[in-house]
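hey so i finally got around to running the thing on that chain from the lab meeting. sorry it took forever, my laptop kept dying and i had to restart like 3 times. anyway pasting the input first so we r on the same page abt which one it is
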Amino acid sequence: MARATQGKRRRVRTQLCRLSEKRPNHSPITQPEPDLAPSPRAVGIATACMVLAATPCMWGPNQSTEACFRFGRSGFVGPIIEVSHSLSNTGQRSHVAEIIARVFPEYMAFATHLMEEGTGEPLKLGPYPKDALTYRSNRMAEYKTPAQTDGLGTHSWLKKNGSPIEGVAILVGPTPDLLLLSVRLPPELNGLTSVIIRQFERDAERSEHH
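ok and heres what got predicted. didnt touch it at all, straight out
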């Protein structure tokens, strides 16, 4: 069993490298570290985000970091893996509240409190109509957003297209804060999606105990 698991992990790394090789030079593709869950506290910001994408952003001497982030926020339509870690005691509290209201009903009072401190807008309760949720615990929920559909998968930088988006939302820490993974791979790599999600969940659980 251990050898089979190691083989799957090696295959994930190989296939992700192949995905990254499709990009033009200077594309800001971030290779995943062994621990896929970034920590925004380490750099003192509201949200830490890591993106692995085949979509180019011409990151060179004439292109600023700010411009590349603007490009990302306009939306990614191709294959992508996005990981974000949002703190609930910062300017991202409304984003965290929106996800909690969609996915984690046991934390609804906390979400309401966050939104009152944030934008003050009313929360939309319950899952997106076409999303499929699978709960691993009351703080961890896997999701699948169908193709050409708005849902949890398009809640951040991903635009809908002809492929589904899968991932997992996890509440971490005593506050709690939010980890969100979104995965949309090329059709020939779809078999790796569940492997990536499981590894992310293991990394998040390991970080919780450190």
